[in-house]
Fold:
Amino acid sequence: MQFRDLKAQYRALQSDMDAAILRICENADFISGEQVRQLEEDLASYVGVQHCITCANGTDALTLALMAWDIKEGDAVFVPDFTFFASGETVAYEGATPVFCDVCPDTFNMDPQSLRKTIEAVLDEGKIRPRAIITVDLFGLPADYREIQKIADEYGLKVLEDGAQGFGGNINGRKACSFGDISTTSFFPAKPVGCYGDGGAIFTNDDDAAALIRSLAVHGKGSFKYDNIRIGLNSRLDTIQAAVLLVKLRAFKNYELTSINDAAMRYTDMFGDSVTTPVVPEGYGSSWAQYTLRLKNQSQRDGLQAHLKERGIPSMIYYPKPMHAQGAFSGTRSAQAETPVTEKLCSTVLSLPLHPYITPEEQQQVVFAVTEYINK
Ligand SMILES: *Cc1c(COP(=O)(O)O)cnc(C)c1O
Structure:
C-alpha cells in the first residue's frame, strides 16, 4: 500500500500527461513557455484572485512574499509552532525573527488566542517589531481567518497565508490561497496538487506586490531581461512542470478533490468513535493533504505505527518536533515559546495513507489494523 499513490495517479492521467510533456520537448521552450502563462491564468481564476505568479518551490514563494514586504532584521513574524520547517525558516533567512504561537488541538491550525498573547509578549519586550503573521492551512484545512484577520487589523500586521498544503480547501466557498494579503502554495509532488519535481506559486490581489514579486523572482529585473534594478532570486517554474500541472489541475478540479473528500469521510465513518479522527469545522472544506489521527499518548502512537508497519501499512508523523525546538533556532528568541498543545500533538499524531486513488478495500484494511491495535 502506498501512503500517497503517485503511480496510480500517473496511470490514470498517462495519455494526457505523456503528450503534454512531449510537446514541450518538441518545442524546446523549457523556460517561460506558453504553458506557464496559461497555468498562472488558470490558478488565479480557480483561487479567485487577480494575480498568480509561479516560482521554483513553496519555500521560495514564502521568501518572495517576505522580500516584497521588506521583512528584515528587527522584525517579528508570527508563525504556528506546529508546521513544516519552511514556514519559519524563510523568516529567519530574511534576518527577521520567527515567533512561534500555539495551535488549536482539534484543527491543528494557529490558535488566535495564543497569537494575541504572543504579539503582546513581543510588544512588552520591545526588542523586535511585529510585522506579519504567517498562517498555515495545515493538512489541507484553512486556518481561522475570521479571527486572525481581526487581530492582524488591530495590530497593523500583514497576513501571509502558507497554503502549501491548503490548495483546494475553502471557507464557505471562498478558496484557500485567497485569504492572505499574499498567499503561497507548493507543487511538491505529494502536495494536494503536485508536479513532477519542485514548483510553487504566489497569489495576491495587490497589483504593486505582484509586480514587485515578478521582478524579484527573475533577478530583480526591470524593463527587460538584462536590466536589473534590485537584488532578487532565480525562481521560475519551468515549462514542463507547468504542462504537468495543467493536466493535474484539470483532474483535481474534475474529480480528485471530490474523491479525496469521499475517502476521508469514509475513514471517519469507518472509525466511528474508536479513535480521534480529524475535525473539519462547519463551513470549512479541506483538501486533505493529510488524514491525521490523535492517539492517547506517545506510547500508543508509536505502538500503532509499529503495528501498521508490520502489516505493510505506511504511516507518517507530521510533525515530530515543535518548530521552536528545532536545533536551527536554539539560542535565538525563536527558541522561546509556550506551546503545550503543539508539544502534545507532536507526541500523539499519526497520518494515515490517503489520496484520490485509494480504494475502499485498502481503507478497510487500514481501519481494521488501527482498531485491532487500539482495542487490544
Ligand atoms: C511543503 C511545505 C512548504 C515548502 O514547500 P516546498 O515546495 O517543498 O519548498 C512550506 N510550508 C508548508 C506548510 C509545507 O507543507
